[in-house]
Amino acid sequence: MLMRQAQSPTPRSLLDLRAEADELLFQAAQGGDQLAFRVLVERHIGLVRRLAMNVLRDELEAEDAAQETFVAAWRNRAGWRPEAKFTTWLYRIAMNKAIDGYRSRRPAPQPQETIARLLDRDLCAAAPTQQEGVERQELSGTLRRALARLPATQQRAMELFYYEDMEVARIAEVMLTSEQSVRALLKRGRQALKLRLRNDKSLPAHGPRDVPAAPRAIRSRP
Q1: Helix 86-104 crosses helix 34-56 at what angle (to 10 degrees)?
Q2: What residue spans define the domains of the chain?
Q3: Can you say whether residue 207 is alpha, beta or left, with left for phi > 0 and alpha for psi between -120 and 50 degrees?
């Protein structure tokens, strides 16, 4: 692993690096400084692992996702820009790696299921005609493009709820926020989606419904 490849530094140089801000360290890492990157790994591995654990609920898989996160961060370090907060960029990679792992072990939702949930639209369970199949694919693409234009937190909550079929309580754990905040993100996300798709002919006439609240049995964590 990249994080284990750096030679043991002198205590003085390591102490100096540990005092640096994330962004300065990663700028050094962009220039090939593996020691600076090692300090970032040591600083953030715990939280990255917890983020992955919230999604995967398996220690070994969470550890793998954390390792893959830092490998991806190193390989794609040229894509980070100093004006962006390093942790936001890193945690987005971590979330994507964890979601990839979660998705790989469960059946992928059928397009018609996601459309039905997002738009409260009854779709026939039988095999669609060729024309219906084309229309569903077009609508699925339209929804994906609309979701991609939502603010990042709304987009993430909507994807986890509608595409990954996660409960509100688990989404709150994954996103490190409260259930109330997740419900608010889902509600605003649906409202924004409705506005973006209002003039699209593929929308059903009655439009999207409000996001359903989580069951009362699910309580927010303190």
Answers
A1: 40
A2: 2-104, 111-197
A3: left
pLDDT, tens digit (0-9, with 9 covering 90-100), for 150-202:
898 999 899 888 888 889 999 998 888 999 999 999 999 988 888 877 755 54
C-alpha torsion angle, residues 61, 34, 6, 50 (rounded to 10): -20
In whole angstroms, how far apart are CA 2 and each of 11, 41, 52? Answer: 20, 10, 19
Whole-structure pTM over 0.70, yes or no?
Answer: no
Judge whether 140 and 128 are in contact, CB under 8 Å: no
- DSSP annotation of 82: T
Residue 112: CB partners within 8 Å, gap ≥ 6?
Answer: 123, 128, 136
Q: For the domain 111-197, what is the CATH code? A: 1.10.10.10
Structure token pair of residue 176: 């490190």
Residue 215 is encoded by which pair of tokens?
Answer: 């069951």
In single-letter form, the type of residue at position 14 comes to L
> Is the CATH code 1.10.1740.10 the one for domain 2-104?
yes
